[in-house]
Write a structure and sequence with these properties.
Blueprint (H helix, E strand, L loop, with lengths): L8 E5 L2 H13 L13 H13 L3 E8 L2 E9 L16 E8 L10 H16 L4 E4 L6 H9 L3 E10 L2 E11 H5 L21
Parallel strand pairs: 4-5
Antiparallel strand pairs: 1-2, 2-3, 3-4, 5-7, 6-7
Helix pairs in contact: 1-2
Length: 201
């Protein structure tokens, strides 16, 4: 597959009132089914983002590709959020979620790889992660394959309280060295637009 290496990829702090409408449209798409938020209206998405951004151990980011909103990411401290009962967090562990906008128009081959590589590089380079931790739904074969291609090691199945219901998740971790040696690590697009570091908007 030809990889889109000429993309300008950037992350900026999410703003609930600016970003809720576009995020709601992405969440309503069948591609986002594993987020479990398809029935959220815009007000519910605003409340959700407000909750993330008001929590001292979480952040939310809007991703831009060539200046256009194209993905959403969350980062969190797994020693304080979501994985406290199932993961022995090490100093420098950083939890991560990413949602890429549903495909529209002519597909851009390699876009999801470039975005995922950019998010991983952001976690390591900008947020100082020593390891990135993810907990995808165990049934989500597509994202699990993407994680492995990014250098993640699948550790074990865990039960995670996810918004009031329990999901069976595949706990996975990735070091910087593993990412650098992975298929996606070779992409690591430079973030040509350096976003502001502030995590609150």
């Amino acid at each position: 597959m030809t990889v889109a290496t000429d993309l300008s990829v950037a992350l900026i702090a999410a703003n609930p009132r600016r970003d809720a409408a576009v995020l709601r449209a992405w969440l309503a798409d069948p591609h986002s089914a594993f987020w479990g938020m398809a029935d959220f209206d815009t007000a519910a998405v605003v409340a959700y983002l407000d909750g993330i951004l008001s929590h001292p151990a979480q952040d939310a980011w809007l991703g831009l590709v060539d200046g256009v909103p194209a993905f959403y990411a969350e980062t969190y401290d797994p020693s304080r959020v979501l994985l406290t009962d199932v993961h022995d967090a090490l100093p420098g562990d950083l939890g991560m979620h990413v949602l890429i906008s549903p495909p529209v128009g002519e597909p851009r081959h390699g876009l999801t790889d470039a975005v995922f590589a950019a998010v991983m590089a952001w976690c390591f380079d900008e947020l100082g992660a020593q390891r990135v931790v993810v907990e995808p739904d165990a049934r989500n074969d597509r994202i699990r394959r993407k994680n492995v291609r990014a250098g993640f090691t699948e550790l074990r199945l865990v039960a995670v309280d996810d918004g009031g219901h329990t999901k069976t998740a595949m706990l996975s971790v990735c070091t910087r060295a593993a990412f650098d040696a992975s298929d996606l690590g070779s992409l690591q697009p430079a973030l040509r637009e350096r976003p502001e570091r502030g995590g609150r908007a």
